[in-house]
Amino acid sequence: MRLLRSEFCLYKGGQLRSPNKEQKVAIEHNGGVLLNAGAGSGKTYVLVEHVHYLVSAFVENNKELTDLEFSKKLKSYLNKIVLMTFTNDAAGEIRNRVLMRFENFPSRPDVIKNSLGALTITTIHGFCMKLIRQGLIKAPTNMRLVDENQIKRKIEALALEWFEQNDIDEEIIIKNASHIIHSMFSIFTSPELRDEWTKKSIENTFDEKKYFKEVFELLDMKSFWNLKYDLTSVNEFHDKPWFLLLSGLNGIKESDPSIDNLEKISDLFASVGRLVVSKKIDPIYKEYVEEAKKLKEFSKKNLEDLLIYKNENSAFLKWQNYLLELFKYIEKQYYFSEECSFSDLEYLVYKDLHHEDVVEAISSQYDYFIVDEYQDTSWIQFDILKKISKNDFAKIFCVGDRKQAIYGFRGGELGVFNETEANIPQNLYLSNNYRSEEHVINYNNKFFEFIFSLGKGFEGDDSFSVPVDYQTFPDSKDSGLGEIKNILINLEDEEVPKRLSATHYSMYEALAMVSQIKEWNNEETCVLYKNLKPSKDLIAVLISEKIPFQAQVKIPYSDDPILVIFKAIIDYLIKVKENRSDEQKLYDYFNFYLQGVLTHFELKLSLENRSLDHFVKDCDQLGIYYSFVKFLYSKGVANSSYQNNLKRIEDICDTCLDNLSEIWVYLKGIESKSYSTRFSYLNNPKVFIMTAHASKGLQFKNVILGGVHNNGRKLPISEVVGKLPSSFRWTPNHSRKKLYKSPNYIYEQLLNDHKDFSESKRLLYVACTRAVERIMWVDISAHGKAQADGKDSWIQALRLYRENVTSQRLEDTIDQGQYKKSNAPLYFIDNLGIKTQKTKIDLGLVSELSVTKLSLIALCSKKFYFSQILKLDEDLEGFYKDHEINYNKRVGVSDADRGSRIHYEIESYIKGSNVQVSDLQSFEFVKDLIDQEKQAHNILVSEKEIKFSFFGQMVTGIPDLFILENNKVTKIWDFKTGTCDEDDKRQYFYQLLTYAYGLHSLKYEMNDSVELALVLIDQKEIVSTHIKVSEIKEKLYQYWVTLSDLTTRELSHCQSCLYGNLCHPTPSN
């Protein structure tokens, strides 16, 4: 794997090379330049050489100065220059390159090197922070940068304050408070959105004409309303539906676009009938009809919402005002607390630059700005840049790739690029691509020129497409090299469905990719995905083939053993402080739970008696974080994934000031989130897996495009409140359950669709331009029909342009079954740097636990705690009487003696013993089922006791029946008499799942998928489900982790539960 900013730009044959003509012009200037630089063109080289040029010119003009005078003046000169890029890594790389470039400077090298520190090379956020620290921008006293979770909690607290202080008479707003708060978080972490909401007035300022103009643009109907159809030449078709439609549209379009006119258009479509345009006439009329159909589809989805908005406007304004008042309250209170995010830095600078004295102070200190990755510049950042340069574009040198700019709200980054292009004195372009071979360059030129012009679904026109400036192949390289290739797979097997699923796509794609990687003799290859989910199948196949690789993976925090252990201990500390009288029982309980967690992650860690007590005592002296580190070290835990887990824990403890409750809330807040890390398999990998986004700045000999068949699907926004002002779903009437979309909510949906599609095209461009020699992808068909899920998926674009693409049909039969996909965490494949010493595991709570008692976990963790830890059921009635608590008794329980008798009769029949039947009708139902299995020559094993280790706990159980076909366990049955409600079923299926786990752990050969069946004898019913063996452990673990939470739950069985009144005491108790 090689960096894009590599020595191919700076060096040739170990020597610094000279720039080409285009680069020389881009280097030797004093500002006022927008440099449009495509992939592989050497833009970082140009940035570094431009700094070298500026310093060289300064040296030439100040030869007469002494070293001291020269140093002082050079520092003053460099202090006024700011070089900004968009990531800390990029800023660090450029900083290092600049220092290296001046290593052997011919004049005063030491003085120059010591002066380079005055040059500001940073990110936009870093520059904003510098302005704040210099006192040039006003900011909250003791401002503290925190992560997004802290900002979310801050906004949530302020929002809840507002809800408590205001009498909201809209019940639906109260019910959706959490959704509203989430939207406020999104708004306050985007300077652009926050600014828009600040400008939004309470009054209704809806401009229908302007609104529909923007809607038409996003529907790729920019000229629709102003276009009048000339029908004179086709008047002979005046009675045809299409003619009536176009004629009617001409009449409606005499007035401005409006909601009323949209309703008229909808009625017009309903009245004209089926639209078939004759092939004999000019095809332009069919195009007119097809364009109008877009509006018909828009009306079908949104007209009702727009009419409700128009007719119930006073109710709408009431909703809008609530949201605006909430926003303004948060805005007013926001900076009274010291927590701030990186987006706050931008926002503070942007707001303070509205004052002329602030502009003067900053512009007098900084007067030249170099901006890298300019295509990612937002409107707020652009406004900051214009203000501090006093709108003098001659003070700006910006470098970016226009093909990566996206149209968004208020024009987005593309609007920034276009405005700069129109105002800056000089526009330059780097056409030479030094990275890719000739065929790769030519393909990318023509392919992206073609698809960038296409609208959603790679159809029609994209109103906001950018021109593709062709890159050229440099004369200094050998021509005629490079390859574009796709592998064709046609699945004809009868078991293959006509419409493939996501699982089919990712597995067949992975098999074909690995076949190609092997054919390339494991050359350097990168598989690039839009998102990483499909890569799990590729990882499985690579491991099966023992091919070394390195993959970018997402690890959920809930799957990281260190964070799981930490949360368990925090739970323990909280419970100890809440109820010290049960400290020993709590210790036993959490020791029991923690051993299960450690066993799940295959970490051998001994928790000797009272080890958690030492941790509790250490917390008072060392603080929680250092006590936890000490605890891990004392147990022999080695953790090279420190930056991902322990560093996060340290930040959490610092942020929450060691407050246990705050830490617990924080941990709950990140449970559903993930962190990215590198997963390596074997040594010296030549295969790399990552997202296209993560590949920016990199290059690879071969690039394979992954996940191309189903990466165009998108879920519509469903939040109650959107991100734009006045974007929300609402209802004018409490009796109506349906929520209607506001006009801006509809607009935001269209905008998001367009942005997502533009972003998808941009990522495809990034992926293809990482390739040096080859681009490859897999194209799957089933039963002769090309497969794809979603019109926006990459495969749709790749199929449209076939010029100079080599196709290879994969003839070999692809056996999907030879590779087993696992849904288990990656820690089961690789420990990602977390290991323990080999120590004996203490099995914890009790020597043995029955499967029946264990199954209480599936019902309620607190019930399990009362029953198996506190052992309250041994004399529960007496306990209740002593403490004057009402005693619940379970009603409707089946006759235990009858159930035992029927079980004995079934067991005897299975084993071939003579049996006297007590309930012939019930027995016959079961007998028929058993006879069917015997006739199939299956092996039936009844009432066999099994004993096995379960998450560090020894467990025993007796499954009623398990069935073997071809010596593999295929079915596990449980016979039940009497009533069986949903709580019972949940508990019984947990037992069946545990038996499946036990049989597998005892080395019984298992079918890939096992049937778990609950045979309800009295109902003469079978309730069954199937579970993959590879998923059993993870499924059980999801139940196990509930043990860490003893929070009371309002479950359906609480009223009849023996412990119900302990969990939910009534006033009389």
Q: Please summarize the sheet with the most strands.
A: 10 strands, mixed
Count, helices: 39
CATH topology of the largest domain, by name, is Lambda Exonuclease, Chain A
Strand elements, count: 32
CATH C-level class of the largest domain is Alpha Beta
Given the helix and strand composition, which structural class is it? alpha/beta
Poorly predicted runs are 1-15, 837-847, 890-894
- N/C terminus separation: 69 Å
Report strand %.
5-15%
Query: What's the alpha carbon Rg, rounded to whole Å?
Result: 34 Å
**Could you say how many structural domains there are in total?**
5
Shape: globular
Helix content: 40-55%
The CATH architecture assignment of the largest domain turns out to be Alpha-Beta Complex
Report the average pLDDT across residues. Answer: 84
Task: Kindly summarize this structure in a few lines.
This protein is an alpha/beta fold.
Structure description:
It is a single chain. With 1069 residues, the chain is of the alpha/beta class. The strands form eight sheets. Strands 1, 12, 13, 14, 16, 17, 18, 21, 22 and 23 form a ten-stranded mixed β-sheet that branches. It has five domains: 21-143 and 342-430, Rossmann fold (3-Layer(aba) Sandwich), CATH 3.40.50.300; 146-337, no CATH class; 483-548 and 683-716 and 751-810, P-loop containing nucleotide triphosphate hydrolases (Rossmann fold); 556-675, no CATH class; 849-1063, Lambda Exonuclease, Chain A, CATH 3.90.320. The chain is globular and about 110 Å long. The protein contains 39 helices and 32 strands. 46% of the residues lie in helices and 15% in strands. Helix 8 (148-165) packs across helix 16 (313-333).
